[in-house]
């Protein structure tokens, strides 16, 4: 059941035209919640019957049957804030304003068909244009504009659904309708749509969404009351009147002690409550003899939802869970309360216009009192005024949460208007109310703070990381030391062994040496003995002369022995040399081993030095500890820097405001200077002079602001003042000046004055009309002709002047100018003047005879949309007057327009790209078709086909209906239509 609303706000909710800046992703999100301190048992489950309670307080709602235990509040601070739905989050605070145009009703169609609508919507630009007359219009931008065909579903989704979603998330929200009586406030908000669900208004749709989103453990309750003449009456229990408003002195929260609060469980039940409320509102109105709802109706929806806070890894998350799953876990059970206000304000029309008298006048004053004080609060809030007069009326006291209030209310306002030009003033006033409200930014409860805890955690993490790194490196160093020591030991061992081997080897070599020396000695002794023996033998030879042969043999033997001895000596000498070389090599080897040993010792020395790195580690640890201390100090410094920064930001904001004010003053002064400089160009522009508009028009285009509008009206006031001081007579005399420059300036002033109703009669009385006609007759100057035609067009708006213009030959003169000029602006002015004259049926014959109709139609050759729109307006005015004359039985016969080819012109222009021209062409065809005597012309010129097309394709429902009516009411048309279409 608790499926939750799928957000369509990104596509269908108001888009932001202006608004607050983006919030950073870190920061603190503060909500106000009611703790579970008060008992959760509620009699709300008992039934849906109307129950009465001690008090209903907004934000701290006392629920039915619930004890008034003080509810504890707490702030919740998630460590990170999401940016989801950023548009909505960022711009939550600004009041969103939409405008809805009501379709024409029967009265509008009957009374207004001669007039253009005063409202033009440009939904694609979210703009609304208010047309004062044919020449002047103002354009305003809103968050959304709804045309007369906008569905109830779309209006709900754009205006109210984002607010409802916000309320379901625990914020307060308000949806309010403001507008003149009969413009559709109740239709938009309170329509029940019993037979057709698509007709349901915002109240029913909001409850439908809310009920679909809450779970069984949640609670939805409503109060419904009206504020009539500063008195609050319960619409669910009408006997309860004069309900007081209580304000909590500490929190400023509002409560209505004694008001009924009803628990709602399904949409049918809510529809019944709404019906009861509407019936009671209607009964109260009837009793008070009022036709329309003159009270302010307020529906309050209280929502109480169970939520729980889950703490995981230091991150706080909010989850909507069934209450039963909360026990036994680390979840913290909480109740989240929010409130939705839907306010159907009473009609905003002016007292003088509504014609109220006696009791009704009193009533209107009270209604106006509360609406006026609402307007004052809106003004004060829009201007950021330090004092908001919330206490001036009950309405503003009740709505204190909705506009700039202390809670984070999200507010949507829908301005309802009608299309009729008769209610121009009321429509303008409603539109301006919306324009002021759109500037209001409610205080948003998202509070931004630096996340110190996060920083702390980050630093701790870094310290942990560094400590681990130090430990790792220490371990590495120990490993290295162990390895080096091991290698050193191995080196020492191998050195000792090498030394041992060397010693063994040198002992062995010494022994061998000794042995060889002994051997050599023995051999030498042997040799000596041998030599002694030889000597003895020679002695014997000498002595033994006899045995010479034998002696010779002995000699031979001796030489052999000597050779053997020499060989043996050489061999031993060689062996001794080898042993000495071997001994030298061993010495060299011993030396290189000693060198290696030295290198090892050096290495050992180095590694012992490396071990000194350990000390560095210790120092690092000390530094780390110092860092801890520094970190603590940094935190406190950060704290003080932050408060300093806040102070500086405040100062900066104040200086910015001052700077802005100075800039605005400078800009106003600059505008005033430029205004004076371009004064005459502006007048020209207002009268359609293209040359002037190339200079001034560009500026106008770039500056379309309220201040310019104010400057323009100030300009008119300046001209009126000049006229007052110089005297109209003198200005009119300047029209006959011989200097054409003087004439140009004078005619511009007169044309400007003629744009205001109250000057028109005076200008004619003082001979201004004659002077203008004289200029038309005699001047050749294009500018003079153009501006003069504009002035006459302005004068021709007034019925009293129209006869005079005709009797003085004005139509002939205008026709002549039309035939001579190709200047589009002049043609537009002339067409406008003739179109105004077409609206006076008494002048029709004269207008035709003076060539006015022919001239009007011929101006179509210009191909200009503006000129075509004026021609179409004139023909429509003419045809309308004729059809009225026929209806009243005052006129007979074929239309005077037929001979001049008006029907052909209309058919040829029925697909004109200009909306205004097309509407007038369609209206003119419908009015001409009403005359049976025009039927022949319609048949011969293809007009019937055009009429059938209009009845199906016209963009205006009222015109489609009119065409259908014409086709039905003429038997000839009926037959043709049946045969051909
Ligand atoms: N958008 C619309 N579409 C169709 N009909 C509408 C629309 N808006 C209003 N109406 C009709 O116009 C009439 C007046 O509307 P509604 O009663 O809602 O006006 P209101 O502004 O509430 O007037 P009041 O201030 O007197 O209460 C009703 O018959 C209503 O059905």
UniProtKB/TrEMBL annotation:
Subcellular location, record wording: Cytoplasm, Cytoskeleton
Biased composition (Polar residues): 49-60, 69-86
Low complexity: bias regions: 1-27, 38-48
Protein name: Kinesin-like protein
Protein residues bound to ATP: 179-186
Keywords: ATP-binding, Coiled coil, Cytoplasm, Cytoskeleton, Microtubule, Motor protein, Nucleotide-binding, Repeat
Region annotation (Disordered) ranges: 1-91
């Amino acid at each position: 059941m608790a499926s939750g609303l799928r957000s369509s706000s990104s596509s269908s909710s108001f888009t932001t035209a202006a608004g607050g800046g983006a919030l950073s992703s870190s920061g603190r999100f503060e909500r106000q919640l009611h703790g579970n301190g008060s008992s959760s048992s509620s009699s709300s489950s008992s039934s849906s019957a109307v129950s009465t309670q001690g008090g209903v307080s907004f934000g701290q709602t006392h629920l039915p049957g619930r004890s008034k235990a003080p509810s504890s509040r707490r702030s919740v601070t998630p460590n990170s804030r999401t940016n989801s739905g950023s548009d909505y989050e960022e711009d939550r605070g600004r009041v969103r304003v939409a405008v809805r145009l009501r379709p024409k009703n029967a009265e509008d169609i009957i009374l207004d068909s001669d007039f253009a609508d005063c409202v033009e919507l440009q939904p694609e630009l979210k703009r609304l244009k208010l047309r004062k007359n044919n020449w002047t219009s103002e354009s305003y931008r809103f968050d959304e504009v709804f045309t007369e065909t906008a569905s109830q579903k779309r209006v709900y989704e754009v205006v109210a659904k984002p607010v409802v979603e916000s309320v379901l998330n625990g914020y307060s929200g308000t949806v309010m309708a403001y507008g003149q009586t009969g413009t559709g406030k109740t239709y938009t908000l309170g329509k029940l749509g019993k037979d057709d669900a698509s007709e349901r208004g915002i109240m029913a749709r909001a409850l439908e969404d809310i009920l679909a989103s809450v779970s069984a453990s949640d609670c939805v309750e409503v109060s419904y009351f009206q504020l009539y003449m500063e008195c609050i009456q319960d619409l669910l229990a009408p006997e309860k009147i004069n309900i007081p408003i209580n304000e909590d002195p500490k929190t400023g929260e509002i409560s209505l002690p004694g008001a009924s609060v009803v628990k709602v469980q399904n949409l049918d039940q809510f529809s019944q409550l709404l019906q009861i409320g509407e019936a009671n509102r209607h009964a109260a109105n009837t009793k008070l003899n009022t036709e329309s709802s003159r009270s302010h109706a307020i529906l309050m929806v209280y929502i109480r939802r169970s939520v729980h806070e889950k703490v995981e890894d230091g991150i706080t998350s909010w989850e909507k869970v069934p209450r039963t799953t909360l026990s036994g876990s680390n979840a913290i059970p909480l109740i989240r309360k929010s409130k939705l206000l839907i306010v159907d304000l009473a009609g905003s029309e002016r007292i003088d216009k509504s014609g109220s008298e006696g009791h009704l006048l009193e009533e209107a004053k009270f209604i106006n009192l509360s609406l006026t004080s609402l307007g004052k609060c809106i003004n004060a809030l829009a201007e950021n005024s330090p004092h908001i007069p919330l206490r001036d009326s009950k309405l503003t006291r009740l709505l204190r949460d909705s506009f700039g209030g202390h809670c984070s209310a999200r507010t949507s306002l829908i301005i309802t208007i009608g299309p009729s030009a008769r209610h121009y003033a009321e429509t303008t006033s409603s539109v301006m109310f919306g324009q002021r409200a759109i500037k209001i930014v409610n205080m948003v409860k998202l509070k931004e703070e630096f996340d110190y805890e996060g920083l702390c955690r980050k630093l701790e993490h870094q310290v942990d990381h560094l400590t681990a790194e130090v430990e790792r490196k220490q371990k590495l160093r120990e490993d290295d030391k162990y390895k080096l020591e091991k290698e050193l030991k191995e080196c020492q061992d191998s050195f000792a062994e090498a030394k041992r081997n060397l010693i063994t080897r040198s002992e062995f070599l010494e022994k061998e040496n000794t042995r060889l020396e002994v051997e050599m000695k023995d051999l030498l002794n042997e040799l000596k003995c041998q030599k002694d023996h030889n000597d003895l033998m020679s002695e014997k030879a000498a002595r033994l002369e006899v045995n010479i042969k034998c002696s010779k043999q002995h000699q031979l033997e001796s030489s052999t022995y000597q050779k053997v001895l020499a060989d043996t000596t050489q061999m031993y000498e060689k062996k001794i040399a080898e042993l000495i070389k071997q001994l030298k090599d061993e010495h060299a080897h011993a030396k290189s081993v000693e060198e290696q040993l030295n290198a090892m010792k050096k290495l050992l020395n180095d590694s012992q030095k490396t071990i000194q790195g350990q000390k560095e580690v210790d120092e690092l640890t000390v530094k780390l500890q110092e860092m801890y201390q520094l970190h603590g100090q940094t935190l406190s410094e950060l704290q003080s820097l932050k408060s300093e920064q806040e102070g500086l930001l405040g100062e900066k904001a104040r200086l910015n405001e001052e700077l802005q004010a100075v800039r605005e003053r400078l800009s106003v002064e600059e505008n005033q200077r430029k205004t004076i400089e371009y004064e005459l160009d502006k007048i020209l522009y207002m009268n359609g002079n293209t040359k002037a508009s190339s200079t001034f028009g560009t500026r106008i285009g770039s500056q379309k602001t309220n201040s310019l509008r104010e400057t323009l009206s100030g300009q008119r006031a300046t001209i009126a003042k000049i006229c007052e001081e110089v005297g109209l007579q003198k200005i009119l005399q300047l029209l006959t000046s011989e200097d054409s420059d003087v004439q140009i300036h004078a005619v511009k002033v007169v044309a400007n004055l003629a744009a205001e109703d109250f000057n028109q009669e005076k200008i004619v009385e003082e001979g201004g009309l004659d002077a203008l006609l004289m200029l038309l007759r005699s001047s050749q100057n294009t500018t003079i002709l153009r501006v003069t035609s504009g002035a006459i067009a302005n004068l021709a708006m007034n019925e009293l002047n129209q006869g005079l213009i005709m009797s003085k030959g004005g139509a002939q003169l205008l026709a002549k100018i039309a035939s001579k000029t190709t200047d589009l602006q002049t043609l537009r002015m002339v067409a406008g003047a003739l179109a105004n004259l077409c609206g006076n049926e008494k002048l029709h014959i004269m207008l035709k005879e003076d060539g006015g109709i022919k001239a009007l139609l011929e101006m179509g050759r210009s191909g200009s949309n503006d000129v075509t729109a004026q021609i179409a307006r004139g023909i429509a005015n003419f045809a309308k007057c004729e059809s009225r004359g026929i209806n009243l039985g005052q006129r007979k016969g074929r239309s005077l327009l037929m001979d001049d080819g008006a029907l052909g012109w209309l058919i040829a222009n029925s697909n004109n790209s200009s909306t205004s021209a097309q509407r007038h062409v369609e209206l003119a065809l419908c009015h001409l078709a009403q005359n049976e005597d025009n039927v022949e012309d319609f048949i011969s010129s293809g007009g019937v086909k055009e009429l059938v097309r209009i009845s199906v394709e016209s963009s205006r429902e009222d015109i489609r209906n009119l065409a259908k009516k014409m086709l039905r009411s003429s038997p000839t048309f009926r037959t043709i239509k049946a045969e051909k279409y």
